[in-house]
Amino acid sequence: MFQAVASPKLRVYRRPSLAMILVIMGAGTFSVVGQETAADGRTLYVENCAACHGANLEGQPDWMNQLPSGRLPAPPHDATGHTWHHSDAQLLRITRDGLAAIVPGYQTDMPAFGETLVDAEIAAIIDYIKSTWPERERAYQQARTDGDRND
Question: For 31-77, where are the alpha helices, taking DSSP H only?
């Protein structure tokens, strides 16, 4: 099990996960790894994402219909959403830098988490989300990730 030493903005892990090693090595991918990473990612997801994206990754109601503000509600991260349409590198960048990093000018209520979470924590959240998808969605998303690495 991971042992994290809490600090205001950073968790220091005493035993690195595969996801952390991949981030450090710059591989740009996070495979669905062991239960420890998914469990840690679930905790981070609940702490940072569930308030908007739902405790069960279900997203907000009517997530494809604009709010009065013109923005879209938080989408689901389960198989009914579109998270699995994005590569690991895109998901990391969206979470860390905000959606406007991928779609310039896009207005969203989702904050960038780069000041709150380190890349390894974001990778753990992504691993947790991916661990909940059926095989078809995982395979599609892995192909997108592999395509990013080959570009």
Answer: 35-48, 50-53
**What's this model's pTM, rounded to 2 decimal places?**
0.75
In this structure, the dihedral spanned by the alpha carbons of residues 73, 74, 80 and 82, taken in order and rounded to 10 degrees, is 100
Q: How far is residue 128's CA from residue 34's CA, in Å, rounded to a whole number?
A: 10
Q: Which amino acid belongs to residue 24?
A: I
The closest alpha carbon to 109, from 60, 58, 47, belongs to 60
Tell me which residue of 141, 147, 22, 149 sits closest to 83, measured CA to CA.
Answer: 141
- In this structure, are residues 16 and 4 in contact, taking their beta carbons and an 8 Å threshold? no
Q: What type of residue sits at position 20?
A: M
Which residue in this structure is represented by tokens 């989702």? 110
Nearest to 130 by CA among 118, 140, 120, 121: 140
60, 52 contact by CB (below 8 A): yes
Residues 14-56: pLDDT tens digits?
344 434 333 333 444 444 445 566 679 999 999 999 999 999 9
Per DSSP (E only), the strands in the chain are 4-5, 12-13
